[in-house]
Each structure stands twice: as C-alpha cells, then as structure tokens.
Amino acid sequence: MGLESPSLNTARPALPDFLRPPVVEVTLSVQYGALVELRTPHLGLFWEKIRTKFPVVQEQQPIAPVIEVLGLPPDQEAGMRVELLKVPPVPRCWFMNNEGSELLQVQQDRFISNWRKTPPGVDYPRYEHVREVFFDNFRFYEEFLGRERLGEIIPNQCEVTYVNHIHAGEIWSKPGQLGKVFTVWAPTYSDEFLSEPEDVRFVIRYAITDDNADMVGRLHISLEPKYSTDGNLVFVMVLTARGKPSASSAQGIRDFFDLGRKWIVRGFTSITTQQMHDLWGRHDRR
User: Fold this and answer.
1) pLDDT for 106-150, tens place per residue?
2) 157 and 242 in contact (C-beta within 8 Å)?
3) Residue 270, Cβ neighbours under 10 Å: how many?
4) Domain coordinates of the chain in residue numbers?
C-alpha cells in the first residue's frame, strides 16, 4: 500500500516574509530504504510516463545516503564503506522541463523535487507551490512502483534545502564585509595586526526541535563567496534542514517539510542583518 495523500493546507504560517527573497533554488527530498529491484530500464519506463511534462533527461552519479544521527556531535559520521557490486550501480536520473525550472531526481533510495530560478528573472512561486508539485509527482511515482511491483517507500530522512544568491551591491562589495550581511560575523579584533579578510566562508549547524522541544533534526547553513557568470561577486548561502519524519507516511513527510521550511525561513532571517531585510523588502509584522 502506498503512502496516503497529505492534507494540503494553503494557509501561510506567520513567518518572516520578503517581497524580493534572494532564493534561487528550493529542494524537497525524501530518502528511503533502497529499492533493489529498481533498475535503469525501470527509470526509463517511468520517464516515458512523465515525458510530456519532463522532456529532458540526464544521468548523474547517485547521492550517497545521509542520516542525521541525533544525540551525537554532527561531525561523528560513519567511516568510508567499500562495496563489491555484482551489477553496475543504478544512476540518479534527472527529469527536467524545457526551461529547467522544474526538476525531478530519482534513484534507488531517493526522490527529489527541485524548483530553480530559470530564467533568472522569474519570481519564486513560494514554498506551498513547490510542496504541492513534490507531492503530485511523488504520488505518481509511488503508483508506478506499485504497478511494477518494485517495492514500497519507507522514508528514513527528509530534507528541505534553500539556495540563496546574495549579490554584492550598495550594502556590501567585498567578502570581508560579511558583517553587513550576516549577524553572526563581528568584524572586531583584539589588536590592529589583522585587517579586513580577503575571503570568508563558514559552516554552522543548529539542532532542530519540535513543539515539545525535542530534537528531531539539524539545520545546516553554509556560505562561500563566488563569482557569477557575469563576473559579479555573490555570497552563495545554502540552508538545509534534515531529519527523520515523525511517521512513515505522506503526512509525516509533509510535517517535516513544513518544520524544516519554518527553521530555514526563521534561521535565514535571524542570521541576516536588518539592512539586508530592507533591501529584500521584508513586509511581515515584526
């Protein structure tokens, strides 16, 4: 039996809101026990059924499984694993629309739905739309697995990822001016030996808690300066909320997505400065 459909509540929660958010990509992902019966020909058969909507296909290397082990420091990861495979690994397939703005990624143990800001001038359609697209395609994929008798999806991790491009401009122009963008950077020194750094990047992790203050996952925030294709400097800020859903159901997945989105939006707001909020048009009640 497949996962039941979650209730799609379209009401927006009371979260910080921006008229011009710097988000360029949003990803919703479910990881589950590997469907070992799913092989490359099955992915081709699935593509035939969604080809009208996703006419572009590419093959990629599979993403390795990632589990947030709660109660341990986040850097205590499992050691490298070596496997002797009797058959070639099944690839991760990308199924894209012609514009490249909607992307499905499917492999033996993951189903991923991406919205991407392509072309650059398009507006972000908001989280509720991205979530609805995920579940529409996820239900269809589950039905396909059932018809082909390829196994049942039992989720073990969910991820929500937002990628933001924060362009240099009137507020900041060099990587060393990080304090004008992020509240966690205090450009002060104990003496005058060092001056403004020429390059700054960071990775920060926070515990995600539910309404009962129980830890249910982690929020990962990373930042690094890069140059866009037109040669302009940009801070690439990635926020990922990852954890195990409260139930092995579509509703459990949806609940973690909503919680992860909440932590990403509030975390993004907390870690960025008021100057940047004004630039992005923050208009919710504060």
Assistant:
1) 999 999 999 999 887 788 999 999 999 999 999 999 999 999 999
2) yes
3) 12
4) 17-31+154-286, 34-64+87-153
